[in-house]
Amino acid sequence: MTSLYSVSGAPGGSVADLTAPATPAPVSLAAGSTSLGSTLVGSWSAAVTVTATVTASAGSPPTATVSGSGAGPYSVSIASGLADSRTYAVRLRGTGADGQVADVVLAVAVRPATTGTLGWATVADYDLTTVDTGAGTTATSGTLALTVGGSAFLTLSGITGSGVGSITPTNGQGVVISAQGTRAFLLDLDWAALGLNLFRRLISVDIEIEPITLTVSSQANLMLVESVSGASSDSNVGGRITGATGPNWTISARTYNAGVSNAATDATVPTTIPSRYSASMLRIPEGLEVCQSLAALPANPDLHTYTGRRRSQNTAWGTVNAPLLLGADPRPAVSLVCATGTSEIRVRRIRVMAQGVV
Predict the structure, then answer these.
(1) Is the pTM higher than 0.85?
(2) Cβ(354)–Cβ(252) under 8 Å?
(3) For 10-22, what is each residue's pLDDT tens digit?
């Protein structure tokens, strides 16, 4: 508050200085607010006439209305004219009968408009059940081009394997992998074309399969891999579903590096093989995370049934392990490892998500 001057009285006495109310607490209004409701400012030390002026940080200042009488208390309001991301100084000047003036200023701010909330945004979503049925490949190397409606769709690369097996695009089912040994492929994504810098963004690579047959000790791995042979060399991280006696099937978060596999089991399903299995591989600030479900892919990786298997890129889940270094350009991949008889899975969907404003 400010008293601009005092006035001396007759000889032998003086007139007391006029004082304004204490500075009121600043007012912060929600985005979209255009008015200020009646706001108490306070009382002067003597009867005054009060006027209000408004200074705006940008744009035209609105008009303020004062209510009150005598010494007060006084309130101020603004009927319209406020705008987002602006601040206003509402100055109330009290003038006493003797001409003294004392001011008080109310600070008003309107918060910026929100542009959204932080969440998962889909960057790419490949529905493999829409592919055209094709001859597929029984090779243990090379690539396989997929089409939809006769037009180019995706190219599966890094095909590896041993023994008898095949990778076949089948409309309505997805990419069918059958093996009496091993078969694997990866999707060599162009991260730059997707607008993602993997060292600056939190990303998730999500894969969904339909297990058809997984014999005892056979396993399907949904992975984020370092190289074309990432299923069984170099480094990879992901989810795994494994067949066991009983019969039953277990799902585990898994890493692999330099011949060392490190897994942490999340669930066991007895009697009937699950109709869907999905896993999300996240690159997060602290390293890596695997989330998984015995179901189709949820709307985002946070909604998986089993979440929170985290590790840095240089330590294992509770055991000693060599560093897991996925490099600058990891790739989504799927492998089927059949220990006995024939196993089969259908790869239905591969999705890439990133955290941002949605």
Answers:
(1) no
(2) no
(3) 344 567 899 999 9
Query: Could you tell me if 222 and 300 lie in one domain?
Result: yes
259, 139: one domain: yes
What is the average pLDDT score of the chain? Answer: 86
Q: Which amino acid is at 61?
A: P
> Using the 8-state DSSP alphabet, how is residue 129 labeled?
G
**What are 335's two structure tokens?**
């492998």
Residue 224: what residue type? Answer: L
Q: Which domain holds residue 41?
A: 2-110
Last residue of a domain, one of 81, 110, 139: 110
Task: Assess whether the previous peptide bond of 247 is cis (omega < 30° from 0).
Answer: yes
**CA-closest candidate to residue 220, choices 193, 197, 239, 192:** 239
Torsions phi, psi for 112 (to 5 deg): -65, 150
Question: What CATH number has the domain bearing residue 326?
Answer: 2.60.120.560
Cα 292 to the center of its chain, rounded Å: 17
CA distance 203 to 356: 10
Q: Please enumerate in sequence order all residues whose Cβ is within 8 A of that of 39, keeping only pairs 6 or more positions apart, or say none.
A: 24, 27, 75, 76, 77, 106
- Give the span between the Cα atoms of 207 and 105, in whole angstroms: 60
